[in-house]
Input
Amino acid sequence: MRGAALLLALLIATPAFAADPIVGVWYRGTPAGTPKPEDLAVIRALGFGGVTWPASQSKGIDALKTMAVAVGLQVTIAGAPRPITPASLLQPSDRLDLIVTPEDAGGLTALAWRAVAHGARTLAFDSGSAQGAGLENVDRSLKPWVRAAIDVARQFSVNARLVNALRPGPGVVVTPDLTPTLDVVMLDADRSWVLIATNTSADPIAATVRLPAGAPYAIWLDLLDATTLAMNGEAAGPRWNLKMPPRSARVYIIDKVMK
Output
């Protein structure tokens, strides 16, 4: 597929960055305040790149850092996680906590990619568990929300250079304006354009998205599911007749130079 080849070329051509973007989880030790190497090994095996440890549990920090190095996890020390909303994610932030609540559990993918669209490069999912990371049920099966978090972590891992290369691009016009339910952002990724669209509502959404004149209109590749999108090419700029399911995200990429 041509789109996949373009993505591979971008990942090879983009220069290395000082630090990769990280998707991790809040980890509080088992019992609380006591890090366990087996816990960290499971977190790493699931595909997460880091853990966030509460600053209030200072006695366990040195041991945690030693154990994390052994399994390849980055460690962030932070205060209490700060709640987010679909509206607050529209504000630029380099690091964000995604607190898992019954209301948000089904929409974590949309929330995570909205954060990325507005500058976040370090994400930490927080189950709210008083100890451990709260990823498993009593029978050791993964909790339903963890699958979405793993998918985001793996996208960050595979496309680390692409995520780090993202910077604000040209504005788009969305009609009707459904902010903050619907957010569509066009980003510059050096040799490519990236469109991130997120619907954080419990209902499907339809809207018209107008890209700037001269932007490519075919064929965009969705990094999340490998589907493609062809827009209507018009003099005023490509027109995307957007239809999105509830609590969903689209992350499209296209080469800037169409051949």
Summary: Residues 1-18 have pLDDT under 50 and may be disordered. Residues 144-158 form the longest helix (15 residues). The chain has two domains: 16-163, 166-255.
